[in-house]
Structures are given as C-alpha cells and as structure tokens.
Design brief:
Strand content: 15-25%
Number of strands: 11
Radius of gyration: 31 Å
Distance between the termini: 26 Å
Structural class: alpha+beta
Helix content: 40-55%
Order of helices and strands: HEHEEEHEEHEEEEHEHHHHHH
Shape: elongated
C-alpha cells in the first residue's frame, strides 16, 4: 500500500513536471518575430465577399498612418500575432496528391517581413520581382522546409494548395527561421506566408500591423483611432498593442498549468498525509522489533537510518514501476513532440527528487520516535 501511494504521487509529480518543462522548452525556442513596439489594428468593414477594400483603400490607410510621427512602418496581413484566429490547409508537393502537410497560412504584403522583424535564412521576401509570376510566391518556415523537402534545398521548389476545386501552384522564394504566431508557449507548426496584393487576391486582409517608435505610450491608441476615423469613418477598428495581446495569450496558455498544479498539489498533500499515517502505524507495530534491536546493541542513529532507508527502498520500488509505465509515452510517441526524451528525462529526474524528499519528510518523525524508544520500554510493550 505504501508503494502504491508513492507510485500515485510519482505519476502526479511527473505529469506536472513534464507539463511545466515542455512550456519552458517552448519558451526558449525561437519565436520568429519581434513583438516589441508592434501594434495591430483589426478592421471591421462589413461582409468580406461583398465589401472589398481595394488598392486605393489600402494606399490611403498606409499614407495616412505613415504621417503619424509614432509610426515607423505599416503592413497588411490576414491575422496579427497573439490571436487565436488562423487559417490551415493541406499543402502538397504534387497537384492532386492525397495527404499533404498540414500548414498554417498567412497572407501578407511586401512590407510584412520588415514590420514583423522576420529573420530570413534563405532567399528573400515578397517584392515587385514577383509581379506577373506564373506561380504564387510563398515564404515558408524552416520547419516546413525540412518536412516538405527533406534533404533538398527548399528555395525554388513548388507546392500546391487546394483553393475551391483548383490546385494553385506556389513557388518558394524564401525561408524564415521560425514563426510562432500564438506566442512563446505555442507549439511550433508548419507555416507558409503567401503574398497579398490588393485587387488580385480572392479576399482582402483585414489587419494592419504598425511598427511604432520605441517607448510609444498606450495613449497613442486614441490618436490612432482618430486618424483611422479620418481615413474611413464608416469602419470600426479594434486596436491592440502586441504587449497586451502577448500578456493575454500567456495567461491563456498558463491557465491549464496553474489549474493542474493546484489539483496536483492538493493530491500530493493528501498522499503525504496518507504516507505519514501509514509510516506511523508501521513504526508503532514494530516497537517490539525495535526494542529487541536496541537491547542487542543498536544505536538510536542506526534505528533512525533503518526507518528512513526502508522508506527510500519502498520509494525506489514505486519509482521503478512508475518509470516502466511512463517510458512508454516517449517510446510510442503518443504525445508527439510534447513529450520528447529531453522532457521525459528532466521530468523523471525532478519527480524522483520530489518523491525522495517527500519520503524523507514523512519518515523523519516516525524514525525519530522509533530511535527515542528505550529497550526496557519497548520490551515492556511486548
């Protein structure tokens, strides 16, 4: 029963540790863009199919916003970073293929790379060089390049995206290091940027990205909204600094870990109480044995070490059984990248340390109580 309680505690600690370590691993991965001094404006202009912004509308917005002293650059994209909205598609190397590579897509104009601070590792971003191209230009992230074109150079390769009943060819003109639009705690995904040109795409993009001067205060939001209303007063605008969107997304990602951590802490306390009670009862039942050992010369320190080491032995048995079960997770890759061998090893080590510490704390008082028994008192109990 003691080993079963310890096994339960080990599994609980492992789950929380793996969850937290995976978040730490994700937090230290490249984000791919610079969120500092980045603002987003979501335009609400009406039905997307019936109300088109048009080239003149985009140019009016760009000129009007660039006149503001705080604005350094302007770009138009389908979705800003740190928002739950996204587009996905199955991209294929050949037209008409069955299964493809599940990929997050983002329509972006020629200024988006500079505004987002994207790091190109190969090729270039969209430009006037792509005007009149037979294939739609695309920039993909390194993860997508390695998945779709393993062992090959991605630059210049063609892939196909299904739009309606037609396979549309895209040619890779550049590769970025990374792009995780959902933030630092989001898992990396295959990602492709496709070029947006006003009046040429099937749909408009409705998000403005602004690279603003460092130190721009939140009061800029009011002036920005007033300028937008001067340009198009019949539209409404949702303005969000990326710093605020980032904080909101981090809270959203951290909420499950906090909830799981609280539940795990409660369960761990309950297991600790149960373990302490079982050890107390076990020590009480062994008073005659302890008295006999003291009578034949065992010291108080030896009795103390015996109780603690026995508890450590029970903990070791439970930990070995727990590891034998949990090691199946990275072996079978049932959780994919969320539990790789690095996270498993660190979570297992941390869990072992916590369980041994818990076992030590639970064994300290029963061991001390047993070591304080005099031989006459123990034998009298018999």
């Amino acid at each position: 029963m003691l080993s079963l309680e310890i096994l339960i505690a080990f599994t609980i600690v492992f789950g929380v540790a793996a969850f937290g370590l995976r978040y730490w691993q994700l937090y230290n991965m490249p984000l791919g863009f610079e969120s500092r001094d980045l603002w987003a404006v979501r335009m609400h202009v009406g039905d997307e199919e019936k109300t088109r912004i048009g080239l003149e509308g985009y140019e009016a917005l760009r000129r009007g916003l660039m006149e503001m002293p705080e604005v350094r650059d302007v770009a138009f994209v389908s979705f800003e970073p740190y928002v739950n909205a996204s587009m996905f598609s199955k991209l294929r190397r050949k037209a008409g293929e069955g299964d493809g590579f599940n990929t997050e897509l983002l329509d972006a104009d020629d200024r988006a790379a500079a505004v987002l601070g994207l790091k190109l590792v190969e090729g270039r971003w969209f430009s006037a060089l792509d005007n009149g191209s037979a294939d739609r230009p695309a920039v993909i992230n390194r993860r997508m390049a390695e998945a779709m074109f393993p062992g090959e150079r991605a630059l210049g390769q063609v892939f196909f995206d299904r739009e309606g009943k037609q396979d549309v060819p895209h040619r890779v003109v550049g590769v970025v290091d990374a792009y995780r639009a959902k933030g630092e705690l989001a898992a990396p995904l295959n990602h492709a940027f496709t070029r947006f040109v006003a009046d040429q795409n099937r749909w408009d993009v409705r998000t403005i990205l602004l690279r603003v001067a460092p130190g721009t205060e939140r009061a800029f939001e009011k002036r920005l909204n007033e300028r937008l209303k001067l340009i198009r007063k019949d539209w409404s605008y949702q303005i969000t600094p990326s710093s605020a969107a980032r904080a909101s997304m981090l809270k959203q990602h951290m909420a499950p870990l906090v909830v799981v951590g609280i539940i795990a802490a409660f369960m761990l306390v309950m297991v600790a109480f149960g373990l302490f009670g079982a050890l107390w009862q076990n020590t009480t039942q062994r008073i005659p044995e302890i008295g006999l050992r003291r009578a034949i010369g065992a010291t108080a320190g030896e009795i103390y070490r015996q109780i603690v080491l026995e508890q450590f032995l029970l903990s070791s048995v439970a930990i070995v059984l727990g590891l034998a079960l949990l090691v199946q997770l990275p072996l079978t890759r049932v959780l994919g990248e969320h539990l790789d061998w690095a996270v498993f090893a660190q979570a297992a080590s941390l869990s072992m340390a916590v369980i041994y510490l818990l076992s030590l704390l639970c064994a300290l008082y029963p061991g001390w109580r047993a070591s304080r028994l005099s031989p006459t008192e123990a034998l009298h109990h018999e």
